[in-house]
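Re: that backbone. Tokens:
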């Protein structure tokens, strides 16, 4: 095979990155689009010894389960890559992917995978959306989502069935306002312009909405008029802010926040606890499924009451407080100072003011505790980890096992790094007892899991 050869391939599966998987001449071929059962024409872009990558040219024959996408943007949008597959088939595919990943990457011959828990709703489930600004050829601002596989191409969104209708209304209002006032969109390559992102969070369990316009500075014509118009759309809009971000990193993060309407925070309610949510805060994007995910983590812990729980990568304390309520004592570790401050506020809000949170990288905190260089070391009965997609650093795996908890509960948003970390835990005396996949993001390739690890001889 040569790069730029055009091949006809039978799509076998969807790979973990959302790409189609096929085989040719003994190599696995990853194609940027396609569904199981499709026969596609694809142009090779990279060829290695054991795999190749290809870009879809056309779908020659459609697979038997392929269906019409609900959204008009599905062919170009980078989000809903599986929308043309019926939801039940998506769930079967994701459950199989978890088992295969644990087997191939984790070295677990017979992975104890429970049935996947489907999302309570396949539509209007996202409580947070981020939209990007860019300029068109005439210099007018475009506000929408990135085209599939690009960082500098944005299409104007006319409809989206993942967030609530209110989020789409706010998007359309902002699109019209930006065009009328000729807002200059920030260019991620030239680093000029002002308007960067629109971030909207609408929490369905409390019906509270926060709107954040992220820009290089506040020199946007009619900024306060826009904020008043957004707030007038619905009583659910509790806060509107301008997030200032002058960095070159093309991410929707606020370095400074200017309040334009409301209090600056909204409230999420999960499993009977309340959590204050601000612009930069991490929060599970599917509120209804998050309750099922967190309950599964509590169930996996098998607590009797009175245990000590160590929660690593605790964020604003969501799981920490749930385990504090169930166990009696919980300590959270988080590296982001603002999240630690928010965790303290959430603890007081829910009557767990004595719950302790430690600010620092998990690897550093665990090392310093082990070496006696930091006070407040914890001897936990249970360790809970909820890391980012990159998973756990090998030293975190080692230090967590060194504490010899009876059990470890691992909440994962990436089956590949979960499999890798489970393989690292095994020689340290911790084996996988069960893993439950959760579909937090219907129509996308993303999968969350709750895994229970048991210590040998405990």
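Recovered sequence:
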């Amino acid at each position: 095979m040569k790069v730029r050869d055009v091949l006809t391939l039978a799509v076998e599966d969807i790979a973990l990155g959302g790409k189609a998987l096929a085989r040719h001449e003994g190599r696995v071929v990853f194609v940027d689009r396609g569904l199981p059962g499709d026969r596609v024409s694809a142009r090779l872009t990279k060829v290695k010894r054991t795999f190749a990558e290809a870009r879809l040219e056309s779908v020659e024959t459609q697979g038997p389960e392929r269906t019409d996408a609900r959204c008009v943007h599905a062919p170009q949008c980078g989000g809903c890559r599986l929308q043309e597959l019926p939801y039940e088939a998506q769930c079967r595919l994701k459950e199989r992917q978890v088992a295969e990943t644990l087997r191939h990457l984790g070295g677990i011959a017979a992975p104890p995978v429970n049935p996947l828990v489907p999302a309570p709703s396949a539509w209007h489930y996202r409580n947070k959306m981020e939209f990007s600004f860019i300029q068109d050829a005439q210099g007018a601002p475009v506000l929408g989502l990135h085209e599939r596989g690009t960082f500098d191409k944005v299409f104007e969104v006319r409809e989206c069935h993942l967030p609530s209708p209110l989020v789409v209304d706010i998007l359309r209002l902002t699109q019209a306002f930006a065009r009328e006032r000729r807002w200059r969109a920030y260019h991620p390559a030239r680093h000029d312009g002002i308007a960067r992102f629109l971030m909207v969070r609408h929490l369905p369990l409390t019906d509270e909405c926060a709107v954040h316009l992220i820009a290089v500075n506040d020199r946007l014509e009619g900024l306060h008029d826009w904020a008043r118009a957004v707030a007038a759309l619905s009583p659910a809009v509790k806060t509107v802010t301008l997030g200032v971000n002058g960095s070159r990193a093309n991410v929707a993060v606020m370095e400074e926040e200017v309040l334009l309407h409301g209090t600056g925070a909204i409230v999420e309610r999960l499993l009977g606890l309340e959590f204050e949510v601000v612009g930069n805060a991490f929060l599970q994007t599917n509120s209804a499924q998050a309750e099922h995910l967190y309950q599964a983590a509590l169930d996996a812990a098998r607590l009797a009451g009175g245990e000590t729980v160590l929660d690593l990568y605790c964020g604003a304390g969501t799981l920490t407080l749930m385990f504090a309520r169930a166990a009696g004592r919980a300590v959270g570790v988080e590296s982001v100072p603002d999240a630690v401050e928010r965790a303290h506020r959430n603890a007081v809000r829910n009557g767990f003011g004595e719950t302790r949170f430690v600010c620092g990288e998990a690897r550093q905190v665990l090392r310093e505790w082990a070496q006696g260089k930091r006070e407040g070391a914890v001897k936990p009965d249970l360790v809970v980890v909820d890391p980012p997609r990159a998973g756990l650093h090998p030293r975190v795996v080692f230090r967590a096992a060194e504490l010899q908890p009876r059990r470890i509960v691992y909440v994962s948003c990436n089956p590949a790094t979960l499999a890798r970390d489970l393989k690292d835990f095994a020689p340290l005396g911790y084996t996988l007892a069960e893993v439950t996949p959760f579909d937090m993001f219907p129509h996308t390739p993303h999968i969350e899991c709750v895994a229970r690890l048991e210590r040998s001889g405990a």
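The longest strand covers residues 51-61. The first helix runs from residue 87 to 104.
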